[in-house]
Specification:
about 20% strand; 16 strands; about 475 residues; four-stranded antiparallel sheet; globular; eight-stranded mixed sheet; Alkaline Phosphatase, subunit A
């Protein structure tokens, strides 16, 4: 490792799919692609939960939700908790103790009772901070008691008695009209200050896009022609062999015509390109400073977005890769060996905190679930590395118990109140066919359930053996019994 501790720059998007930066993808992300060429790409990176707050809490603490205590979004009425569990540590606190200067701009969304300053960050321009001050009922009180008879607009879906939701439109005249532009400018100004001195620093630029709705200014709104966009390969999935909640969501979003789905994808790609341009502005300032070579840049997102895959939108209860797989790219010219590599080992957001504390020569956070990715940066392979990814879903704005174990070949999803899911990812990468009920898959399911229950025990994840809720084909006794 370089004897001088590196600076650390996070550029984080919200709800960005991993495939956006894949080779040959039609979406233009030149700055992401440049980072891939000059750094390393983790092609199998995942989020422990496809909801903003638990994902971001896992990044900050290195812990799974069962340890840090944030299971769904903290500023919503159905929140399980409003903050991290007592005793949880974040990597920023350890970096501060190690002499790093720290600044945070953009979307926070980790705790409703603690802001970045409580964890060592200097606060710049922020959103999603502070205690939740409203109620969902307020949106209904503002609605007219009369039935809304206005015609449905493009990209909009309607449900009687619910607020209207529109997924995309042109909004603003230039990139400077978007809220994320000010976050980029805050990051640039702070870089000017930090790079004028020799103390190590960590700057976190957390953008709010490309989170739905996909409302973007020109030229991004019309950058991609919907006529040239193919529907997702699994768009036709009616999900009759999958949990009923998936089918309910599919039916709701089916109000959008195929033309509107293509238009939504065009706007989403335009949003991703806009975010990439904002990231590029920050990276350009870093290059101009002369400190880029000894700066570890971490380009990441909290979770993905369906954007028409399986006929769905946003993220949440459906356990498909489009929402769980995330972009994860790191660049550090003075530290990374053999740049341009693709690392296909399974990693997740819990690995970020151990990586950052190790590279900064700081004390690790307490009881992390993840492991440092530093060996991969040095083109080394740890003697023992995980062969599976695990999720912890207890619901979003509605409570729902689901756990997933995913290897390179198989994905098993345990839905406590609905059917199991099993996919052969080599034969069925788009997760079209649920093979959980096939008798010949019983041995595979047992093997995967053993992995799942062992991980749950390791992470302190609650497991009930009560007969009214014990619906797994193979219970914890196969993994934990004597």
């Amino acid at each position: 490792m370089n004897k001088k501790r590196p600076n650390i720059l996070f550029v984080m998007t919200d709800q960005e799919r991993a495939d956006i930066g894949a080779p040959g993808h039609p979406c233009q992300t030149p700055n992401l692609n440049k980072l891939q060429r000059e750094g390393i790409t983790f092609s199998h990176a995942f989020t422990p939960m496809t909801h903003c707050c638990p994902a971001r809490a896992s990044l900050m603490t290195g812990m799974m939700p069962s340890k840090h205590g944030v299971f769904n979004n903290v500023q919503n009425d159905p929140a399980f908790t409003r903050r991290l569990n007592p005793g949880c540590e974040t990597f920023s606190q350890k970096l501060q103790d190690a002499g790093y200067k720290l600044a945070y701009t953009g979307k926070w969304h980790v705790s409703a009772e603690e802001d970045p300053k409580n964890f060592g960050w200097e606060e710049l321009d922020l959103i999603c901070t502070g205690t939740y001050a409203g109620r969902d009922a307020d949106s209904y009180r503002d609605m007219s008691k009369a039935e809304d008879t206005a015609p449905r607009q493009d990209g909009e879906f309607l449900q009687p008695g619910y607020p209207r939701v529109r997924f995309y439109k042109t909004q603003g005249e230039t990139i400077a009209d978007h809220s994320d532009y000010k976050f980029a400018q805050c990051a640039i100004e702070k870089l000017q200050e930090y790079t004028a001195q020799d103390e190590p620093w960590c700057l976190f630029a957390s953008f709010a896009g490309p989170h739905a709705p996909f409302n973007v200014p020109e030229p991004y709104a019309s950058m991609y022609n919907p006529d040239d966009i193919q529907l997702p390969e699994n768009y036709s999935d009616e999900m009759l062999d999958k949990p009923q909640i998936y089918q309910m969501m599919r039916k709701k979003y089916s109000q959008l015509s195929e033309r509107e789905v293509r238009e939504s994808i065009a706007h989403y790609w335009g949003y991703c390109t806009m975010e990439d341009d904002l990231v590029g502005m920050v990276l350009d300032r870093l290059e101009q400073s002369g400190q880029a070579d000894n700066t570890l840049v971490i380009r990441i997102s909290d979770h993905g977005e369906f954007c028409g895959s399986h006929g769905l939108y946003a993220k949440g209860l459906a356990a498909f890769d489009e929402s769980y797989r995330i972009p994860c790219v790191m660049r550090w010219p003075d530290g990374i060996k053999n740049p341009g590599r693709i690392v296909d080992e399974i990693v997740n957001l819990c690995d970020i905190s151990p990586t950052v504390t190790e590279v900064a020569n700081a004390e690790p956070t307490v009881d992390p679930s993840g492991a440092s990715l530093l060996p991969f940066l040095f083109d080394e392979h740890p003697e023992q590395w995980r062969d599976a990814f695990f999720s912890q879903c207890n619901g979003v704005e509605v409570y729902y118990t689901q756990r997933m174990v995913r290897t390179k070949k198989y994905k098993l999803v345990y839905n406590a109140t609905d059917v199991e899911e099993l996919y052969d990812l080599e034969k069925d990468p788009h997760e079209m066919t649920n093979i959980a009920a096939l008798p010949e898959m019983a041995a595979i399911k047992k093997e995967l359930y053993i992995k799942l229950w062992k991980n749950a025990d390791q992470e302190g994840d609650y497991m009930s053996s009560y007969h009214t809720v014990s619906h797994a084909s193979f219970g914890p006794g196969f993994a934990l019994g004597t």
